[in-house]
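Morning run. Coffee first, then this:
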Amino acid sequence: KMAAAAAGPAAAAGLWSEVNRCGQNGDFARALKSVNKILQISKDDVTALQCKVVCLIQNGNFKEALSIINTHTKVLTSDIIAFEKAYCEYRLNRIESALKTIQSASQQTDKLKELYGQVLYRLERYDDCLAAYRDLIRNSQDEYEEERKTNLSAVVAAQSTWEKVVPEDLGLREATYELCYNSACALIGQGKLNEAMKKLQKAEAFLPFTLICLQDVTEEDIEAELAIIHGQMAYIMQLQGRTEDALQLYNQIIKLKPTDVGLLAVIANNIITINKDQNVFDSKKKVKLTNAEGVEHKLSKKQLQAIEFNKALLAMYTNQADQCRKLSASLQSQSPEHLLPVLIQAAQLCREKQHAKAVALLQDFADQHPANAAEIKLTMAQLKIAQGSVTKACMILRSIEELQHKPGMVSALVTMYSHEEDIDSAIEVFTQAIQWYQQFQASQTRGANPKSPVHLSLIREAANFKLKHGRKKEAISDLEELWKQNPEDVHTLAQLISAYSLVDPEKAKVLSKHLPSSDTMSLKVDVDALENSHGATYVRKKAGKLTGDNQQKEQGQGEVKKKKKKKKGKLPKNYDPKVTPDPERWLPMRERSYYRGRKKGKKKEQVGKGTQGATTAGSSELDASRTASSPPTSPRPGSATAVSATSNVIPPRHQKPAGAAATKKKQQQKKKKGAKGGW
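And here it is:
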């Protein structure tokens, strides 16, 4: 036992030397073996346990490292192993546990502060994260300053993109492709797409030079980083409406097969949004990329939510009603106040022709979430219009109090009421909107009565509407109000005089005195330029030199009109002036008095037909024994009569055999009975 005890420390010293040497060389697998041998000698050696945890972390065995920490809590206290424990939890995506471990540490080292910033970023607590990185940059000076600035710019970009916060100028010099990329993302969040594209092009140019300076960088690493930049470029193209260019770039990135599952998921989702309800088979292929393992840890909550929304819409477009309802219900349970899940469910019900259920679903949501009621009620009104219930749609729109006075809402309601010929309700809409602006301006100006341009525009539109529908007396009060606001408005005065002329002519005469005289209303119009303009219907010919005769013609141009020469009609080629034209030549042939119908089979009249061996009328002429010298015999009944040698004898092929027409009719009847369709 004494010998073994003496041999233990000597062996341990050699093993520690091996551990130290392997650690410096980065051979942590071999170092782990030596550490395990040390723990066999002394199982509760704090330094050995701590070294083992570090070796496991370096080898990527975070689960085993965390297990050792949790099983040796008495030896490995939080003061000793807090960073390693929090880091293992962070890498295992146990972000909340990592935050608790960091906050429970008695001493906040620089390493813990760095990790704290990463944890806050993953939890999307961007304000706290920004403060943590600012503190780190202010209170540390080492070779990792550039990485901290990159992380700080990433936080600002996330705030601009997801929280729509206007980013402050951090004064960072964009000397690396990461800083250029993060700056571009911040600009996208602000909607400055052209500037963002320039930043991405700058990042693309910086990338090769930045990575070449690093060791162990391969072409694959450069392509992977370029794919991220190109993906953001394609997203800008999509936002700009250049969908074809964006789609082409997206597909190029997918063909490269990048290992970043987050990038692939985002690109696949964006392609699905471009496809919409078209090319659904391609969308079904792309949606598989969004289901890859680890995607949920690579993307933000809003990105994951957008992907789930698109999955539900794709299920609706592919007529997977149950899947669509399941996904939208799941989204609604996760975000009860969000509009999209309810709108997707309503859209699915409409596809199933269940409009009443869709309206009831939207009404329930509007009652439960009054803050989002306006958008829901707009959708309900649209459904009512689709059903033909315009009056009910108007009632729903008028129930949206925060939009009643808006010019767009007033215009929509007036148009719909006019379509239903409900002029009184349309005028009431105008009146309510005008009253709202009067009350609002009175509260803002403390009793003064200046009218805003929107208010005056509403009064003018109301007056025009009333004049159009014969409400002259009501229109007069609006026009007087407008003229009172601007007495020099000649157009309003003219309208007012026109309205009074139909109601009170004397008042119209009095008001007409306020019209400016014709002398003061000189219109500076260049007549020649107006006549020669592109839209002029009459263009005056350029004046040339006029002779004496031409001048007389010009003077009498207003009195004498030029006579148009009549063109002579064209006569037919076979016209004979000696022959009287047919008086019925203008009528169709069938309607003329001398029409006797068409003669069928002129060319086939004399072709022999009939049963085999039948004798036809021309058989005697086909007999060679009957020559011209033979005395003619008396004709047989039904046979052709003999003709003189000098007459025009019809050749046998042109003769029509007896009974040929009847035979032809029978054949046609047989064909009709047996016919079974044509071409």
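Confidence is low (pLDDT under 50) at residues 1-7, 616-667, 669-679. Good start to the day.
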